[in-house]
Design a protein that fits this description.
single chain, 348 residues, alpha+beta, Immunoglobulin-like, five-stranded mixed beta sheet, three-stranded mixed beta sheet, 8 helices, 44% helix, 17% strand, binds copper (II) ion
């Protein structure tokens, strides 16, 4: 009897599934409307500034770079990984294409061949008296040792790649703090005056106008210098998100209450797209990531355009300030109490 009840409940559930799916579909509209005011005002301003790329930054210092078709973005009918622009990405893609895929192909064909032989040669019609063999030491050693060797061949490059991906950043690495919000990204630059970039998805018409892929393009990009290790500190403000750039073989969860760290180094100038890769709510699919990689001087210009300070220049000023503080302490012994505080302020 309970069987019938369960069956009916299950059937009812299945019938209602499309309805719940519809309800989920309807959801994005509501939070979208909530988030819209900021976007809408941006839209309203955009047409006026259409001739110049609407980055909102001083065009003398920074204009958003055009992406290269097929680079840093998915392509229609694509089967392989995206072209890799980081060292770890190149190694990872090589492991996949030169080691894993051939091994998998050979193993699959070998097992298929064994199955076919068994099906044909040892079927009941062709082999009415089945063998009673239960042990064969030689074969057992072979089918243990060969898989162990295969796993070793895979493990060596794989573990070295894993270790390389999580090597700590060098002392002088640029730090970028990435925060996942429901449903957009924030990038702050603590080494450059701690300004924060808020990055929202571009509406379709604007993405098209800028020649960028819709649902991957954003209004304000994360910008980093080319060929330099960037210490990425990644966290979530509300729920778990995940920061991912497929072309750089980079993905790390953004978890509220903790900071995950990983080095991002991209060796080619360009624009690379990614998406939030952890289901984070109704507009999870609408919080793309755009990373623009620039030569260092252009990157510095971008920092200035955002009102930030350039790392090297700041250090020079700091050095001067410290020297001043030292001079003061030397000149006036009575201010020794005040001087350390001043020096500390200068460092800060
Ligand atoms: Cu997310």
């Amino acid at each position: 009897m309970t069987h019938y009840v369960k069956a009916w409940i299950l059937a009812l559930g299945l019938i209602l599934t499309p309805a719940t799916a519809m309800a989920q579909d309807a959801l994005p509209a509501a939070p979208g409307a909530e988030a819209a005011p900021a976007e809408a005002t941006a839209d309203a301003e955009a047409p006026a500034a259409e001739a110049a790329p609407a980055s909102g930054l001083d065009p003398e210092l920074y204009t958003p770079m055009k992406p290269t078709e097929g680079v840093g973005m998915p392509v229609d009918g694509g089967l392989d990984f995206q072209p890799q622009v980081s060292e770890t990405g190149k190694q990872a893609k090589w492991i996949n294409n030169a080691i894993l895929l051939p091994i998998m192909t050979v193993i699959c064909l070998f097992v298929l061949a064994l199955l076919l032989i068994v099906i044909v040669r040892f079927r009941r019609g062709a082999n009415p008296e089945p063998s009673k063999t239960t042990h064969n030491t030689f074969i057992e050693i072979v089918w243990t040792v060969i898989p162990v060797l295969i796993l070793l061949v895979i493990a060596v490059p794989s573990i070295s790649l894993l270790a390389k991906q999580f090597e700590p950043a060098p002392e002088d690495a640029l730090t970028v703090k990435v925060t996942g919000y429901q449903w957009y990204w924030g990038y702050s630059y603590p080494d450059n005056g701690d300004f924060e970039i808020i990055s929202n998805m571009l509406p379709e018409d604007e993405a098209n106008a800028r020649g960028e892929p819709f649902q991957l393009a954003v209004d304000n990009r994360m910008v980093i210098p080319v060929g330099k290790p960037v210490k990425m500190l990644i966290t979530g403000a509300d729920v778990i998100h995940s920061f991912a750039i497929p072309a750089a073989w980079f993905k790390l969860d953004a978890v509220p209450g903790r900071i995950n760290e990983k080095v991002l180094q991209i060796d080619e100038v360009g624009v690379y797209y990614g998406q939030c890769s952890e289901l984070c709510g109704a507009r999870h699919g609408f919080m793309p990531i755009t990373v623009e990689v620039l030569p260092e001087d252009k990157f510095n210009d971008w920092v200035r355009a955002n009102g930030g300070t350039v790392k090297g220049e700041e250090a020079v000023e700091e050095g001067e300030a410290e020297a001043d503080a030292d001079a003061e302490t030397a000149a006036d012994e009575t201010t020794t109490e005040g001087a350390p505080a001043e020096a500390a302020a200068a460092v800060n």
